[in-house]
Write a structure and sequence with these properties.
Helix content is 24%, strand content 23%. It is of the alpha+beta class and 290 residues long. It has a single domain, classed as Jelly Rolls (Sandwich), CATH 2.60.120. Strands 1, 2, 3, 4, 7, 10, 12 and 14 form an eight-stranded antiparallel beta sheet that branches. Strands 5-11-8-9 form a four-stranded antiparallel beta sheet, with helices on one face. Strands 6-13 form a two-stranded antiparallel sheet. It is globular. Bound molecules: 2-oxoglutaric acid. 2-oxoglutaric acid binds next to strand 7, strand 11 and strand 12.
């Protein structure tokens, strides 16, 4: 992994609510990830485990939508090698200023030429069923990205705006910026938009309350991205949120007797005291069949 945050990066991330990074992954890691995306969207799950959310498959998925799979790391080891990577996790934790970090969910997003937009949103308005509810996301471009190609975009400083509730459509809305424009109006500010335009292997990191979304892909090349949504290593289920209902997918991993997050589903990727989830390395390097 190539990304090592500097003090300036940290300051910029906390001020703006995001950081754009030229190089997160080396080029030789891209072809296995492209293959993994292809396999997963064709229903080929290398490990035999189905991802937690399969929102698009070849043959049945709406071709005009951006394709989405959640927790591809459970299905494919090329994805897992990035999502569970300790060096990357350490760098992300250092950027956030955390002493330990765990994966909450990954997202495999694929927006082929002609595919529609993804609506602006704040991740934490969907993903705050844990406490402390701090969230950081790492978005890794697997193709060169451009504004016309529907790259990720951020409203600068918007992590300091009001914490909203989910509004509008995520997949293929007519006016993808509308929820953010309304939020900006409520703040009394004119939004300043930053487009993440990087070479494949670059990307960005953003705060859980930063408004972001992406336009339609009006270019001739695909726009694939691997996204890691991460929480602090000391996060646990929030009983108040559980009582309100957090949906069937992530509540099913709740222990009967306590609120601890199960490390099989939410592994600790790095901690300054060395307590990375032990099973990760066996999972990434299974014994060879004889
Ligand atoms: O890739 C996109 O267009 C949206 C990504 C996103 O919502 C996220 O990284 O949280």
């Amino acid at each position: 992994m190539l990304f090592k945050p500097t003090d300036d990066n940290q300051q910029s991330y906390h001020e703006q609510g995001y950081l754009v990074v030229d190089k997160i992954l080396p080029p030789d890691q891209l072809p296995p990830l492209h293959q993994a995306f292809d396999d997963i969207y064709h229903g080929i799950f290398e490990t035999g485990v189905t991802p937690d959310e399969v929102n698009w498959q070849h043959g049945t998925g709406d071709p005009s939508l951006t394709r989405q799979i959640c927790n591809g790391w459970k299905a494919n080891r090329s994805i897992a090698c990035v999502v569970l990577n300790e060096d990357l996790a350490r760098s992300i934790a250092q950027l956030a200023g955390w002493s330990g970090i765990r994966i909450m969910i990954d997202n495999l997003l694929s927006k082929p030429p002609g595919a529609r937009a993804l609506g602006y949103h704040q991740d934490s308005s969907y993903l705050s069923w844990f406490t402390p509810s701090d969230l950081i996301s790492c978005w890794i471009a697997l193709d060169d990205t451009t504004q016309v190609g529907g790259t990720l975009e951020f409203a600068t400083h918007s992590h300091q705006w009001q914490k909203g509730v989910p509004v509008g459509e995520f997949h293929g809305p007519d006016d993808y910026q509308k929820p953010m424009q309304l939020a900006a109006k409520h703040e009394g500010v004119q939004p300043h938009i930053k487009y993440v335009q990087v070479k494949a292997g670059g990307g960005s990191l953003h705060h859980g309350w930063t408004w972001h979304g992406s336009g339609a892909n009006e270019s001739a090349i695909p726009r694939r991205a691997l996204v890691l949504h991460l929480m602090r290593s000391d996060a646990a289920y929030d009983p108040d949120q559980l009582a309100q209902g957090i949906g069937p997918i992530y509540s099913r991993y709740k222990h009967l007797a306590d609120n601890q997050l199960d490390e099989n589903h939410f592994p600790i990727l790095w901690h300054e005291n060395g307590t990375r989830t032990q099973a990760i390395d066996d999972y990434l390097n299974p014994p060879k069949a004889t």
